[in-house]
């Protein structure tokens, strides 16, 4: 447990360096009229201050003093832990701070020894007192505050002054070098946590008091009075309801007692019915066992029959699967042959069109000469080429229809899909008009080939 000797700032709580004056309020804050208080207002909004920052210099100074005292108190609470670990932190603390800590340690030890001697003398005096001593003397004995000698008083006063001066000088040294406190904060004693929490609560209360205005205080008081009045009315209602509840409970107890008597009567009848039911249940159980044995025999016979049927059905299924596989292989071979034929037709058509395109590119200069000198000789040849073009168009349509049938069967029956995937470029070639090496449509290439034939006949 922490004593007053461990915290020299708490030896004389009446002698504070600064007195907090919470009467200094913020000027020019947002104030609301008292008539605006209604029971429907938000209680958190009423209890919280309207302004969020301190506007006046006095209030800011007061809050700064409170924060400074909290910081000093925290650093003063760390001094005993610094004294305990001074041999580990001799290098970062420095010679000056080490000497101050040693002086503080010596003064604390002397003060503890002096207090022990005073307590020993007070215990001896307590033994010398008679048993019929007054209450005041017994209280003094228990607290250890009997009068001591003048030398001891002077010694106590000197030790307290030296401890106070040592603490002040240590705090000054720590304020100049705050990096020392960073490692010691973690090793702080847990018994001081409550003290720091209480002082932080005091800081928050002082900040809230500085932020609140007079009108806000009045409004808060009126709101609390209204809440108290509501609480009184609610307590009265609760008392009335409790009285009504006691009356209702008494009536209910009477009804329960009457119902219990009825229940006891019904229990007797139920017991008689239960005995009769047990007899009937035994009879039903025996009959059910007989029926169960008969059902089990029938089930075993049906099970054997069904197993035989399942075996025959499995054999039929295997045979049908084998037949289906053979049919599938045959259909795949047929479709593969058809695909090969279609692909060969498409290749032949592409080769013919490529040759015609080459021939057309070679005969273009002759066409220009014929167009200027002998246009009437080309009419018959052009008609013949158009007929050839129409026939080739019909053949191309037939190829497209065959390919469409194959694709239809591949969509409806998934067994045909691998046959269509063998020649994936056939559909694109048919759709594009089986383009050869040259550009342009099939009709234009046929016309060019017809003109080339006419030129060839003329030459």
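^ Assign residues to that structure.
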């Amino acid at each position: 447990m922490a004593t007053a000797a461990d915290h020299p700032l708490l030896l004389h709580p009446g002698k504070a360096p600064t007195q907090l004056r919470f009467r200094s309020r913020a000027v020019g804050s947002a104030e609301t009229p008292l008539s605006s208080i209604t029971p429907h207002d938000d209680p958190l909004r009423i209890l919280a201050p309207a302004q969020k920052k301190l506007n006046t210099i006095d209030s800011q100074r007061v809050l700064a003093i409170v924060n400074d005292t909290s910081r000093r108190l925290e650093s003063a609470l760390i001094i005993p832990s610094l004294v305990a670990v001074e041999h580990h932190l001799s290098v970062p603390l420095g010679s000056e701070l080490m000497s101050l800590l040693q002086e503080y340690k010596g003064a604390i030890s002397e003060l503890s020894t002096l207090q022990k001697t005073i307590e020993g003398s007070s215990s001896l005096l307590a033994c010398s007192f008679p048993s019929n001593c007054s209450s005041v003397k017994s209280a003094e004995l228990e607290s250890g505050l009997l009068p001591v000698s003048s030398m001891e008083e002077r010694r106590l006063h000197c030790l307290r002054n030296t401890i106070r001066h040592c603490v002040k000088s240590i705090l000054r040294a720590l304020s100049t070098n705050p990096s020392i406190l960073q490692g010691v904060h973690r090793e702080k004693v847990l018994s001081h946590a409550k003290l720091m929490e209480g002082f932080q609560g005091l800081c928050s209360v002082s900040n809230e008091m500085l932020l609140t205005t007079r009108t806000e205080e009045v409004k808060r008081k009126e709101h609390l009075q209204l809440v108290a009045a509501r609480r009184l009315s609610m307590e009265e209602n609760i008392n009335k309801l409790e009285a009504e509840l006691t009356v209702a409970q008494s009536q209910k107890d009477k009804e329960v007692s009457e119902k219990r008597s009825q229940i006891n009567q019904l229990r007797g009848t139920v017991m008689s019915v239960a005995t009769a039911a047990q007899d009937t249940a035994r009879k039903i159980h025996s009959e059910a066992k007989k029926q169960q044995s008969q059902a089990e025999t029938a089930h075993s016979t049906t099970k054997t029959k069904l197993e035989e049927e399942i075996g025959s059905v499995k054999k039929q299924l295997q045979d049908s699967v084998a037949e289906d596989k053979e049919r599938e292989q045959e259909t795949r071979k047929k479709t593969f042959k058809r695909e090969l034929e279609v692909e060969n037709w498409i290749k032949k058509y592409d080769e013919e069109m490529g040759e015609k395109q080459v021939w057309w590119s070679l005969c273009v200069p002759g066409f220009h000469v014929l167009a200027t000198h002998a246009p009437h000789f080309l009419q018959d040849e052009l008609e013949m080429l158009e007929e050839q073009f129409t026939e080739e168009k019909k053949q191309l349509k037939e190829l497209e229809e065959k390919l469409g049938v194959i694709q239809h069967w591949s969509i409806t029956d998934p067994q045909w899909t691998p046959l269509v995937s063998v020649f994936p470029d056939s559909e694109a070639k048919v759709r594009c008009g089986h383009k050869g090496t040259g550009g342009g449509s099939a009709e234009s290439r046929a016309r060019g080939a017809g003109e080339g034939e006419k030129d060839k006949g003329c030459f």
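The chain has two domains: 8-226, 340-458.
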